[in-house]
Design a protein that fits this description.
There is one protein chain. The chain is of the alpha+beta class. The chain contains 17 helices and 22 strands. Strands 2, 3, 4, 5, 6, 7, 8, 9, 12 and 13 form a ten-stranded antiparallel sheet that branches. Helix 3 runs antiparallel to helix 4, helix 5 packs parallel to helix 10 and helix 12 runs antiparallel to helix 13. The longest helix has 17 residues. It is globular. The chain starts with 5 loop residues before the first helix and ends in a 15-residue tail after the last helix.
């Protein structure tokens, strides 16, 4: 038999793979994520790695000095059918960390967890692997004293003012990605307390994709861009993400939140935050409670519509960070109440049948109310983005007396990971000496030298015990604000890679979230699933995710299946029915209008009414932005910050019209594509587009005088809900302010979905 060269073997394998996929000599359409189509169910029969796709190449296999080895380039790729460590040791499990009994804690000896997390922490140089795209601000936290009965932490005591730095971020995208992508957002706050630094490192979604931190590299690898093409950027609308979550059904609850409006917040200042995990609180008497942390925005929870988010990603990819910085600069300081849900510290660590150590579960606020314990105010922007927002380093292990960790296996792995990730990103172990990370409490450690050591340590004895430095530093007791771990009884059991039986319910809380939303919010969830899955290439992945949705709710599954042109499957493991939690809905309340952006379309030749309205908008704590044919001074003390060319409706929370402006000199389709929009002959077409988009996005619109004619020219019904007209600019503004309290005019486009 004639022997074939390695390159020919690879070529033959590629041709067979292509024929299997398409039945032809070349693919029928570009975009297949893998060289062979996936199965509907997870494969269990071991097989060698798939060959590359026909369009892919790899570096030639040569020696370090350039000599051709004659070997197949594929020898540089993965080898063998079984999962191993980097040393070739085969692994029986990569979903569970090694714990002392199924409820933990996680053991330091878990070499696989350590290697997997260590390598993941250093995948990006020097960018963060996750949360790379972020923005931060300085502020102050004022304690209410309401936590004293359950927590002795000094910064929570009444009237105590603690400096803070808060960083918001997306998870999946790189530093250069856009702000308003559909993604989970980080919400991390560094408290510079007198007892040491406390970091509350959370998200704007209260649950996570996974229950055990050993799986964190898996979920992020699935969510990140495909490794062959590095696309799509900062999106979950692709095959690898849905391949993972459709197989890994403990992610279902988080996916429901991510497909909701929560994943596209209007701004950071209208975004909730959550500590995700359950922590242990200790009071002055040594009594303990379990607790979850919540950040509640004083401006209310508010999100973008999906079309708005897509427009913003092109119009202003810095939308969220710009909004944060501008709101602080204008004095409309973002504010949140920090609250806690408190639970008895029982041996089983459950509450109302909910396992408190499972980070894919919430406790509805109707079962355990959120008690406010302090107020966060962000009031200073960074002086230098890199030195502050980029170099800030958070760690869930930065704790203070009164706040301790639990055996949540996701939290336990994070305790490994956060210090480790700084070694490459910030150049060594002394990242705590970077100004933004320096504690505001005295530091006397025995850590010495290393890269970027800024301290000039005295003495000769950085060890204990010693006499050469007079015995210093000395240990402290609990009565001196020392951090003493709670002496929790650890389960006496086997060392296992297992999870408790309570972790196996993956659908009930996903259904709880769905049932708690209004019909309009459900409409948005169904549309998001349809859009995201519609971007997948592989049909089997879409069908598999529909099987998951069938277990959550048949209406949701049917709506998504219809949008994808697929049959809706029957539920195989349907979630049990649950009572809705109204606290999970964003719609129905009224909120302060502080910091809302109001666009005012003005006529440079007639600005009397506009000047009155601008003053009243400013007096109400909102930010007026004047839109005119040209920027700069308009006369009468008014200054236009936006022009018909630069303005877009997505920036504003409401639109006011003092005029029906005629087409400006630059209203030429060749100069501004927006000028090609249809309009009445006497109105600038870009103003008409501004109004049409605002109306379609359920925003409040007000007009007086000639502004009413602009509405008519744009085809906006003057008698529609949320459209206010009148002779008095002040009266029109008053009605618009009332509408802004509900964020949007939700009744303008009712949902067709059943309640």
């Amino acid at each position: 038999m004639e022997s074939r060269k390695p390159a020919q073997v690879v070529k033959d394998a590629l041709e067979k793979a292509v024929e299997k996929v398409t039945g032809a000599a070349s693919p029928t359409a570009p975009g297949a994520p893998a060289s062979a189509p996936p199965d509907l169910v997870e494969p269990t029969e071991p097989r060698e790695p798939l060959p590359p796709k026909p369009d892919q190449g790899t570096p030639a296999h040569v020696t370090p000095t350039g000599a051709d080895t004659g070997a197949s380039p594929q020898l540089n790729s993965q080898q063998g059918a079984h999962l191993t460590t980097s040393q070739g040791l085969r692994l029986p499990d990569t979903d569970h960390s090694l714990k002392a009994g199924e409820r933990g804690p996680t053991l330091l000896q878990d070499h696989h967890l350590r290697e997997k997390i260590m390598h993941f922490d250093h995948e990006r140089i020097p960018e963060r692997v996750v949360h790379a795209r972020g923005a931060g601000a300085h502020g102050v936290f004022i304690g209410h004293g309401t936590a004293a009965a359950v927590c002795k932490a000094g910064f929570l005591q009444e009237g105590v003012r603690t400096p803070v730095f808060t960083r918001f971020s997306t998870v999946v995208g790189s530093r250069g990605s856009a702000d308003t992508v559909r993604d989970t957002r980080g919400f991390a706050t560094k408290f510079y307390t007198a007892e040491g630094t406390f970091d509350l490192v959370g998200n704007n979604i209260p649950v996570f994709f996974i229950q055990d931190g050993i799986k964190f590299p898996d979920v992020i690898h699935a969510a990140k861009p495909h490794p062959d093409r590095e696309i799509p950027q900062a999106q979950s609308a692709h095959d690898t993400f849905w391949d993972f979550v459709s197989l890994h059904t403990e992610a279902t609850h988080h996916v429901m939140w991510q497909m909701s409006d929560r994943a596209i917040p209007r701004s950071y200042r209208t975004m909730e935050g959550f500590g995700v995990h359950t922590f242990r609180l200790v009071n002055a008497e040594g009594g303990t409670s379990l607790a979850k942390f919540h950040w509640k925005p004083k401006a209310g929870v508010h999100s973008l519509l999906w079309e708005e988010a897509q427009l913003i990603n092109g119009v202003d990819p810095d939308f969220h960070r710009r909004d944060l910085y501008d709101s602080i600069e204008s004095g409309a300081y973002p504010q949140w109440e920090l609250g806690i849900q408190v639970f008895p510290d029982t041996p089983d660590q459950t509450f109302e049948g909910i396992d408190l150590l499972d980070s894919t579960k919430i406790v509805p606020e109707e079962l355990a109310p959120v008690t406010p314990v302090g107020t966060l105010v962000l009031n200073r922007n960074p002086t230098n983005f890199f030195a502050e927002s980029e170099q800030v380093a958070f760690h869930v292990g930065h704790l203070v007396p009164g706040i301790d960790v639990t055996d949540d296996p996701l939290l336990q792995a994070r305790l490994f990971s956060y210090l480790d990730t700084q070694l490459t990103r910030l150049g060594g172990p002394n990242f705590s000496q970077i100004p933004i990370n320096r504690p505001h409490a005295p530091v006397n450690d025995m850590l010495r030298d290393g890269f970027h050591q800024h301290a000039v340590h005295g003495g000769v004895a950085p060890y204990k015990p010693n006499t050469l430095d007079g015995g210093c530093p000395f240990t402290a007791g609990a009565d001196m604000s020392a951090f003493v771990e709670f002496p929790q009884v650890v389960e006496q059991g086997r060392k296992v890679r297992e999870a408790p039986a309570s972790y196996s319910d993956h659908y009930t809380q996903a259904r709880l979230f769905w049932r708690s939303l209004t019909a309009l919010e459900r409409e948005h969830v169904a549309r998001a699933f349809t859009f995201e899955l519609g971007k997948c290439y592989e049909q089997a992945i879409k069908e598999r995710q529909l099987k998951v949705l069938a277990n959550v709710d048949p209406v949701l599954c049917e709506q998504v299946a219809t949008g994808l042109g697929l049959p809706a499957p029957e539920a195989e493991n349907p979630a049990r029915d649950v009572a809705p939690s109204p606290a999970l809905s964003q719609i129905g309340g009224t909120w302060p209008v502080d910091g809302r952006l109001v666009g005012v379309v003005v006529d440079p030749a007639d600005h009397e009414g506009a000047r009155t309205v601008v003053a009243e908008v400013d007096a109400a704590g909102m930010v007026p932005l004047l839109i005119a044919p040209h920027g700069g001074p308009l006369g009468g003390g008014l200054v236009a910050q936006r022009t018909f060319l630069t303005a877009r409706s997505v920036e504003f929370d409401a639109i006011l019209l003092a005029t029906a402006p005629p087409p400006a000199p630059d209203a030429l389709p060749a100069r501004d594509a927006k000028a090609g929009a249809p309009s009445g002959p006497a109105v600038d077409p870009r103003v008409s587009l501004l109004l049409q988009e605002a109306f379609r996005h359920a925003k409040a619109i007000g007009a007086w005088g000639g502004g009413v004619a602009a509405l008519e020219a744009a085809g906006v019904p003057v008698d529609a809900v949320g459209v206010v007209t009148g002779d008095s600019p002040s009266a029109v503004l008053g009605s618009v302010v009332d509408l802004l309290g509900e964020h949007r005019v939700w009744d303008r486009f009712p949902s067709a979905l059943p309640i």
